[in-house]
Structures are given as structure tokens and as C-alpha cells.
Amino acid sequence: MRIIGLLGGVASGKSVVAQELAQLGACILDADQAGHQVLQMPHVQEAIRTRWGQEVFGPDGQVDRARLAQRVFADSAQAVQDRRYLEEITHPEIGQLLRCQAQTLAETGCPAAVLDAPLLLEVGWDRWCDKLVFVDAPLEVRQTRALARGWTLEQFAAREAAQWPVEQKRLRADIIIDNSGSLEKTHMQVLRFWQSLIPGPAYP
Q1: Which of 7, 38, 135, 162 fits a disulfide with 12 by CB distance 3.0 to 4.6 angstroms?
Q2: Whole-number Å distance between alpha carbons of 9 and 30
């Protein structure tokens, strides 16, 4: 099974490209979804409660991701330390979940899996990938998309600052998908990439 790693700036449309690849036959390794699962693990919750107290938990007893994000993406030195701590307790667990999922997908005969992980390079998960795809979109387009999600520009900037610079990601990529235009244009680029990766007589 081939593994395709997705790179790109915040709100560049990595999930859009992932879904396009899924329609062509790829399977998805979603690090964000794995992160949800990890935040439900008792030992991870205990570590979070010890660090930040009950105030980052919701009425249902689960970690409130929005409240936690306010702590770790704030503009302060303490937030940087808090983010590093959170990554130290969650990334190994997320990586283990993703590796298990990849093994299961390979056993089912999936031809390729898409690894959609915001910190793919930062954590070193690019070493699992056969190809790295950079999803490109101008800063102003990405900011507009982030605002449409309900983010503020300050929240966008904080998320962007927590990742490798966009140009550095671009340099690591094997292929670039321009996702600044129509969905049809993105689809055609993804299709060409898929055909080069997984040769076949026909595609959806």
C-alpha cells in the first residue's frame, strides 16, 4: 500500500484533496480523528487534568477541544510550553493509532492511504510516506476560508505559527496541487496524480 502525505498551510484545502483521492479509491488516515480518540484515553485525560484542571473539560466529562486550543494557541511563551506538553502526551498515541490503521488498511488490499495530519513534517511522519503532496492556496484565500469556519484572523495566525513555514513544506513536496480555483480544476490535478501513482485501466 502506498502512503500519500498531505502538506499545506492552514485552510489550504488538504481535506478537500483527501476526499478527492478517497473518491478515486484511496483510504484516509485522519490524524485529527485519531486525536479525538486519544483525548478520550483515561491516562491522557488525567495528564491534561493535572496540567490545566477541570476547566478544559466539558459538561460531558470529555476534553473540550476549543477550551484546550485557547490555552495552547495563545500568544505567549506559556502557550508554547503548553502546546509542547500536549504534543508530547498525544503525538505518540496518535502515531500508534495511525500505524495500526495503516496496517489494517494494507491487509484489506487498499491501494493507497492518504495521511492527513497538520503536523506531518513536524512530528516526522513523513518518513512513512511514499509521496508528499503540497496543497497550495494563497494566504488571502486561506484566511477567507478560515474566517468562513468561524475563526478569527488571530486564531488563524496562531495555528499557522505553530506549523512549519508554508514555503518549507512546499520544498519538501513531490507534487503541488493548486487548490485556489474551482473544485473541478483541483479534481483534474488530483486525478492526474492518482493515475501516475496507481496505474489502472479506468478511474471513477
Answers
A1: 135
A2: 17
